[in-house]
């Protein structure tokens, strides 16, 4: 919140509670929201990432590690890192576009899918009065060997946005990182938003060997990968004329 206050307006918590099936206790959780140019915008985009990480490394090959928490360098922190940096670089530069940065809690609580995506579900039930036109979710985009094909719920929900973003990636020299190919169906924080009527896409590299293990640490990630996704988001949100679709191509 301190970081976001440097560059955003209306930085706030969106608290909620969850009674966890694992221990029967009720936990207080909170999404974090922050705005740039939200009120005056012609197009409003929510850019989200999850700030929690999984409490159990249940995919770890070593059973002794499966009760330890996942640090979440990629699965969580990578998206948050890009959100924080985007907020910093976009300060004062947005024209027609308004951005709501949303850091969700409880995305990865589990153990089952019914106890995941908790913050996104809460946000989707409590949308701001000025509704977002689109959402873009950034998840697991720090992998050193980053490859982000088109996630399938995203393509069903917002094909025009997917086409625009992947075409922009190609023009920005990022076609190898963001190949215009259909990947998997991934249930993630974008699904509750889609169900609430906000077309939302998920930029995710789901082929990450340390996923939900104790090895999801910063040495598995690279700043270059974060930079590629961040730069693409910056170009798209600023609608720089050089990157607008051209009828001649
Ligand atoms: Zn996860």
What does this structure look like?
- This protein is 29% helix and 20% strand.
- With 249 residues, the chain is α/β, with parallel strands linked by helices.
- A six-stranded mixed beta sheet has the order 1-2-4-3-5-6, with helices on both faces.
- The chain is globular and about 50 Å long.
- Zinc ion binds at residues 54, 75, 108, 212.
Overall body shape: globular
Strand content: 15-25%
Count of helix runs: 7
CATH class descriptor name: Alpha Beta
At a glance:
Helix content is about 30%, strand content about 20%. It contains 7 helices and 6 strands; from the N terminus they run H-E-E-E-H-E-H-E-H-H-H-E-H. The chain is globular.
Salient structural properties:
alpha/beta; six-stranded mixed beta sheet; binds zinc ion; 249 residues; Aminopeptidase; 7 helices; disordered C terminus
Task: Give the SSE layout.
Blueprint: H1 2-5, E1 9-19, E2 26-36, E3 43-50, H2 73-90, E4 97-104, H3 118-125, E5 134-139, H4 152-157, H5 159-171, H6 190-195, E6 200-204, H7 223-238
Helix pairs in contact: 2-7
The structure holds zinc ion (ZN).
